[in-house]
Amino acid sequence: MSDVVKYSEKTFENIKHINEYGEEFWYARELQPVLEYVQWRRFNDVIERAKIACENSGQTISDHFASVGKMVEIGSGAERKIDDIMLSRYACYLIVMNGDPKKEVIAVGQTYFAVKTRQQEIIDNFDILTEEQRRLAIRNEMIKHNKLLADAANKAGVVEPLDYAIFQNYGYRGLYGGMDMKAIHKHKGLKKSQKILDHMGSTELAANLFRATQTEEKLRRESIQGKENANKTHYEVGVKVRKTIKELGGTMPEDLPTPDKSIKQIEREMEKKKLK
Questions:
Q1: Beta pairing partners, 30
Q2: Closest by alpha carbon to 254, among 193, 172, 191, 194?
Q3: What are the distances in angstroms from CA 178 to CA 14, 44, 175?
Q4: Please, are residues 28 and 85 in contact by the beta-carbon 8 Å criterion?
Q5: Residue 237 and residue 207 in contact, taking contact as beta carbons nearer than 8 Å
Q6: Whether 212 contacts 218, CB under 8 Å
Q7: Cβ contacts of 210 within 8 Å, gap of 6 or more
Q8: What is the C-alpha separation between 131 and 128, in angstroms, rounded?
Q9: What pTM was computed for the model?
Q10: How far apart are alpha carbons 243 and 206 in whole angstroms?
Q11: pLDDT tens sequence across 191-215
Q12: Is 60 helix (H, G, I), strand (E, B) or coil?
């Protein structure tokens, strides 16, 4: 079993807690062994560096690192109180960013908490975003998750560029009712140089983001091996996402309107505004 399969999102999800306000948090004492720190003293050094980073970023340390005490068993039914820290998602992100980069689990943790923190930022501000800003936000998430998907596919045996292109087409066929990338490209009336993801509205991009994230997670969770099995998985996830859209009464991805502006055009316009 590879380290990437051994350490996945579940590694951190399994020790996540929810408080009475519905907020996520992690206990430092539970995060310590997951990040492979044997001694609390060494792990606490990492936490202290994370606190400094937190303060330097303009955040209030106590909002993300809350000191607590809890009782633990020491044998024969006896208990003693130990110091612990309730950590926010952002605190965990800072901890893994300050952890030992040689550890595989640290790399996985950096990806997990970075992605989750970014997703929450988008969720928190999504209602006030314009359609163009939503497209940019989701498109940027697609770029990140396509890299994670490519890595998961590679671990499953999809190694060569041509094989990966075939793998991607299986996902599109599932989501678009049989249409592959070339067919979608033609359906949208795009030029050869234009990327289909850059010419999707936020709703269509969101459907593709869900397809990518769920496929990546399934490949890792089930330790799927072999190109054919990986292709089948991508297709099946695409079909399920399409089925969900249909059950909710939504518009099929291929029937959604193609925006007038591409992502590249929006980015250029925003850059010009910054320079003014």
A1: none
A2: 172
A3: 37, 53, 8
A4: yes
A5: no
A6: no
A7: 241
A8: 10
A9: 0.57
A10: 15
A11: 888 999 999 998 999 899 989 988 9
A12: coil
